[in-house]
Amino acid sequence: MLGRSIGISGEKLRHPGDDPLPDGIYSEAEAAIVRYAQRSTRMLNIDEATYMALTKQFSVEQIIDICLNVGLAQITNRFNATFLTDVDDYILEANEKAGRAAAACPIHDPARDRASVVRDVAAFSRAARPSIADRARAARSRHHACE
């Protein structure tokens, strides 16, 4: 909804996850930023072609700003997804009207049973994290291997 509020067209908002990007939707500068954001979001190395596309359109200072803005958006999304932060009703309504643009992050539904989310997270944490005893055994094993 922020994109629309600053004048980004619905057409542009529908395609940031497309690979390849459709022709004629984005300017060269916009396409360079979207491709950078795609690679960064997927935690892929920023290859030479992606970086060179940015340098053709932007100064090093501008590329730093782009990097920081993309990273800030990513950490904000990850924080919200982790802690299931509540979203204002007007944003939920706008998201519903927009039909959730392709590749958009799902927005937390405050109506979801928070207790079931906490249970799921706790179960995952227990399953994914070794016990203290397991970690201690592994540390002793590494220590003895170095002697």
In brief, what are we looking at here?
With 147 residues, this protein is mostly helical. It has eight helices and no strands. Helix 3 runs antiparallel to helix 4 (48-57).
Describe the structure in your own words.
This protein has 147 residues and is mainly alpha-helical. It has 8 helices and no strands. Helix 3 runs antiparallel to helix 4 (48-57) and helix 3 (28-41) crosses helix 5 (60-83). Mean pLDDT is 75; it is low at 101-108.
Name the shape in a single word.
flat
The unreliable regions are 101-108
How many strand segments?
0
**H-E string:** HHHHHHHH
What profile does the largest beta sheet have? none
Tell me the radius of gyration: 21 Å
Number of helices: 8
| Helix content class | 55-70%
Query: What proportion of the residues form beta strands (DSSP E)?
Result: under 5%
Structural class: mainly alpha
- Our measurement of the CA-to-CA distance between the termini, rounded to an integer number of angstroms, reads 59 Å
Average predicted local confidence, pLDDT: 75
